[in-house]
Amino acid sequence: MSLDIYIPIILFISPYKSARFHVLLHSQPSLCLSVVASRYLSPPSFLLHSGEMSLNIDPPETSFPAAGGNVTVKMISIAESKLAFKVKTSNNQCYRVKPVFGFIEPKADAPLEIMRLAGPPKDDKLVVQWAEVPPEETDPKAPFAAQAQQGEVVLPLKAA
């Protein structure tokens, strides 16, 4: 019998790798639990800002001509700590974004450039995933490699 339980603890064994431990339960010595811990382990959803988002995008929706165009939106952090972000699109053939990974300092904002290439009119979306990171973090990809995403913001993209 295998049972996976994720416990919200933080270990500083390695800043970028997960650590796996086997825990023997005292009540049932035959049951061994496998526990994964990471520097970026996401807390349970009920601990995340009481439903408040740590990252917003302004404007909350964008439109493009089907022939293509450029728009710059602002990612706004309302978090008390540094955020790492990762940007994904639902249509990589028509959209390019810059930057794809990055950081936003506490209570600051950062520009996000969106370029639409010529293509058929279609409604798509852009997803900005985020994770709170320590102030000394220098690699914006690390929390996402450790599967520590804490939230996401969806930006509808309309092309007509």
Automatic annotation (TrEMBL):
This is Major sperm protein. It comes from the Eukaryota. Central component in molecular interactions underlying sperm crawling. Forms an extensive filament system that extends from sperm villipoda, along the leading edge of the pseudopod. InterPro entries: Ig-like_fold, MSP_dom, PapD-like_sf, Sperm-specific_class_P. The gene is WBGene00276339. Keywords: Cytoplasm, Cytoskeleton.
